[in-house]
Amino acid sequence: CLLTLTRAATLGASTYVTNDSENNLTFSINLPADPSYPNDFHFYLSAPHGNSWVGVGFGKGMRDSFMLIAYTDKSGKGLTLSPRVGSGHVEPSHYSNTTMSIKLGDSSGIKDGRYLAVGVCHNCKDWHSGSIDFESTTQPMFYAVGPDELHLNSDAPNAGLRRHDYWGHFTMDLQAARGDPARFPPQNLTTVNTTAAGNEQNDHEYTSSLHAVAMAGTFVLIFPVGTFYKHIMGSVRWHWITQAFGLVVVLIGAGLGLGISPYYNRSKHYNSAHQLVGLVVVLLVLLQASLGSVHHRIFKAKGQPTIMGVIHRFLGLVLICVGVINGVLGFNLASASHHNIGYATVVVIVVLVLFGLAFFMMRRRRRQEAFNTPAAQNFQSAYNAPSRGNDIPLQPSYGPPPAYQRPMGA
Known about the structure:
alpha+beta
């Protein structure tokens, strides 16, 4: 027994430091030797502040694992530490338990360009879907780091997270982590009583980016260009080709959006404004295409306009405007509202270019139409007709008029 206590007092911590010396993530844990706290552990977590969030987890993978995730608080100067539980390879959910509590020490915050979370997790040994084996010498662990983007700046423990940029696995000897919390964390934090399990994995979530490109590209560029072909250039053929292509891209983009939604807490219930508006818009785009097709067939057969053509024309303009606005809601939903500035800039540029081209082409068309009026045609015909002997020349005379000659005998 004395040997065990001496070993605990000597070690008292298990620490893992990632291989990257400049941007390393460090996690250290201490289990109190005092049997009065059988379900508590002390922790030290440090990682680069350049990423939107950092976290460590207890378990072989995300499913049913317990995680500690840190991100910048609302003030931008401190941090929020969120206890979460995973349900698969999806965004983990905040774990709210009346018996579990986390207390951060005064040294926690944003220090020298790094997240620093030092504290104690009370009654954190067990949760509803798992537990930590405090007697394990090879406790499976993992870490993950969020994307290099703007910080969350949130005090909410359930703030939305973007998918990790990289992650890795390691194991910890928790028996060796028992010791006096007063001596924790160690002065020199180096890898001790831990082992890396495999190589660090880079990761990125491309689906949401492709969804944004597809939908924004269609409503900001493809559909407006198709409208330009019809109403400015008068080309029904290119209008149909462009809008049909846009319809295909919209359906692909909608499929990507529906497919990625279950991976995030903010979108898995399909009840956000962006999702509801988007689904309605996609359905109306299908209706819009049907109205245009039926109207075109009737017009070709009878040569008469239809009410479907009127609806098709004005509904199209409304859908373009609503689709563009829904893009802003989409960036907000994806915790990427900082992209709205660039998005708005692109929208303004496209509008100015299309309106500029429309103004130039309509002005040019009016000038051409002026030369095609009956009066203009008669004038040009007379001007270009071959002259006859007794015709008065149309070209101007630049000499003085001839002097009046008095008739003979007057």
